[in-house]
Design brief:
five-stranded antiparallel sheet, six-stranded mixed sheet, alpha+beta
Length: 388
Amino acid sequence: MLEVRLVKALPGFRLDVAFSAGQELVTLFGPSGAGKSLTLRCIAGVLRPDAGRVAAGGQVLLDTAAGIDVPPQRRRVGYVPQRFALFPHLTAAENVAYGVREGDARARRALVRELLEEVGLAGLEDRRPRELSVGQQQRVALARAVAIRPRVLLLDEPFSALDGGLRASLRETVAAVHRRWGLTTVLVTHDLAEAFTLGTRMVLVDGGRVLQEGSREEAFYRPRTRRAAELLGVRNVLPATVLGHEGPWTRLDWEGRTVLAERRDGLAPGARAWLCVRATQVMIVRPDREEDGAERPNVVRGRLVEEVPHGDTLTLRFRAEGSPRPADLEIEIPGYAYHRLGLDRRKEVSVSLRPGDLHVVGEEEPAGSGAEGGEGAAEPGGRGPERA
């Protein structure tokens, strides 16, 4: 179990985060400059926070109030920084063996061999970092971090320097190592696909604070704030006003249209809110069902005003009837469905926003864990890679 509570003030930036992780792979996700890498450095002991507490595997590694600050080399934290920090004069095997103190020489050699084989570097034991590719160096750094049998494994943007094929391969390696050794693993990334693919839990960080912590599905489909929705790739965040609640639904006014959405208690009639729906969840009604007389909630007539192909999928932009905006919704649709629905020929369509897919967040954003207040509806962005 990992428990983290950290406060660190830097010029123009304040880190104030708190989260926990069990024996699982947790992704620390957010834009560049959010404070993710800074958080890992404080956990590893490379940087001392102004205040906070870190406990891992039942041992307190840091408690500023109690005067506890275990040195980095005694924390048993496996830390892979963005630049790997391999020793250039040592071979791959010697890098992995560095810091291993348990067992006799024969057992240590066997462990090094096992780890290098597990990360796909069997046969490269005697090569030095300059003789290895970037991806191979990353694997050496991963094996070295695991070799000390850490209480927690910290990975800082482990795939950022790799191309698509190597990224996919190393993702599989990281997942396999996590399963094999049963480590509490915290992985920093600003790539949403990686965060969702690898982690079972997600900690969303922005501006030095935690906006949301929970399962990846909860974060992906039920962001707690407008800012969280934007960072988590929700492209349809629509202004609305609460009209009331009916059973499992909340009734809202969106641009003069009454829509039903997943119930959100705590929002009184008249309250401002945001309707969040992912582009993949906006359904285009089939032509033969538009006039069948069936009652469907949240059906909106309009026109497709723009189409952007992405190979197997397309992004469609939809403008509702009577709307003054260039477009109101983005729709992500597979290429086969685009042609099956005849959208290459017809542009006047109806879309269906299923109530269960509409998630409501309030106008005001709550502060994150230990934060000093909300950021409102700030646009996505960061403060620079040095605080990633």
